Amino acid sequence: MPSYKSTSSPWQDRLTEACREYQMAGPVFGIVSDRRGGRTAWSSTVTVHGTVYRARFWYDGKNLNNAKEDAAEVALSQISGSSPNSSSGSRGGW
Question: The organism sits in which domain of life (predicted)?
Answer without folding.
Answer: Eukaryota
